[in-house]
Every structure is written in C-alpha cells, then in structure tokens.
Prior knowledge:
Elements: H1 10-32, H2 35-44, H3 50-57, H4 61-65, H5 73-88, H6 94-103, H7 110-120
Helix pairs in contact: 2-3, 5-7, 6-7
Amino acid sequence: MAVAFAPDVEPLYAAIVRLQMENQLLKKNAAAMCIAQQRALVQARAEGSVQARCQSLGLARSSYYYQPHGESVQNLELMRLLDEEFTRHNFKGVLGLRDYLRQLGYAVNEKRVRRLVRLMGQEPV
C-alpha cells in the first residue's frame, strides 16, 4: 500500500514569485547602470554561472569579459601637443590643429584629430 505524498507547494510558489519580482527589479536597475557597474555586480554575485548572471542583468557575456585598451603612446603624445596648442590658441578648430601637427612632422588626418579633440573634451571658442 503506497501512500501518496503531497508536498506543500505554497511556499515554493511564494518563493518563485519573490524571485521573479527581484529579477525584474534587478533588470530595471541594471538598465540604468553603466557597464562597469554591471560587471561588478556580476562578479559580486557568486551563485550560478557567469552566463546566467549576465543574462539576469541583461548584460552581454562579451561585455563582461571585455577589457578596454587605453590610448597608444603616440596618441597620448598627440593629445599633449594638441592640448598645448589649444591652450595657446583656443580659437583653432580641427583643421587648424591638424595643420599644426603636420607642421611638427606628424602624419595625421582630420578624423584622428577630431576624435582626439572630442576625447579631451575641447571645443573652440
């Protein structure tokens, strides 16, 4: 004679609902975070795989593993020169700064100078 065992499912359903609400709240808050904060949150949570943790935040796994590279030594030198020239002549635009670097012997184009100036946050008067 087998006795039918009926587990108490109410606490299990309550836990599922609570976890779903926490997951939704986490996704909403994660959308407002920058990627560095989301990476830190994935590292802080120990349970589950990296894939599951990234998926719960809505973060691509490739974004989690991405290691940003800094600017090259040559670009840092160009930025220093651009900053010095811009401090002396704050009315020069991208073309004027490009011409200045070309006079110094650097083979740069307008796109590179524009990107570096934007990165530095400089705008002509």
